[in-house]
Design a protein that fits this description.
The chain is an alpha+beta fold. It is 46% helix and 12% strand. The model has no long low-confidence stretch (mean pLDDT 94).
């Protein structure tokens, strides 16, 4: 794995221990996720235990330790979507893609993520695929939408 990117990121942040979260954010942007060798290099450069770095990564939901798919599917599980039947939408989505919540398809096309709320309650139940929101879904509609991607 090419660690030149992470070394440049650490240098940019002056290698400050207080800069761990911004360093992790920049590294995730550069690599798409936070692979173990990157976390180990960050720990070594900041002179902190690898377990501390991994603890921060596992604590904050914004950090990913697995690669994500080309298309990020965020399934809203807020109150309005729950009442609107998002569980049936989720089941149809998982069946169509052959994955479970939080997983990436084998072909790397989709990653499915559960979110607390997309802020589109009037469209409930809804999902966001990349930057596009799809609302008033049914199991049949979500399958049609996925096939378009």
């Amino acid at each position: 794995m090419n660690l030149a990117k992470v070394e440049a990121i650490i240098y940019k942040h002056n290698g400050e221990r207080g800069g761990l979260i911004p360093i992790l954010q920049d590294a995730q942007t550069a690599y798409g996720y936070l692979p173990k060798p990157v976390l180990e290099r960050i720990a070594a450069e900041l002179a902190i235990a690898p377990s501390v770095v991994e603890g921060v990564v596992s604590f904050y939901a914004q950090f990913r330790q697995k690669p994500i798919g080309k298309n990020m599917v965020k399934v809203c599980h807020g109150t309005a979507c729950h009442i609107g039947g998002v569980e049936k939408i989720s089941d149809a989505l998982y069946q169509e893609l052959g994955v479970d919540e939080g997983d990436t398809t084998e072909d790397g096309k989709f990653t499915v993520e559960r979110v607390a709320c997309l802020g589109c309650c009037s469209l409930a139940p809804c999902v966001m695929i990349n930057e596009k929101t799809h609302g008033r879904l049914t199991p049949r509609k979500i399958k049609k939408i996925i096939k378009k991607y």
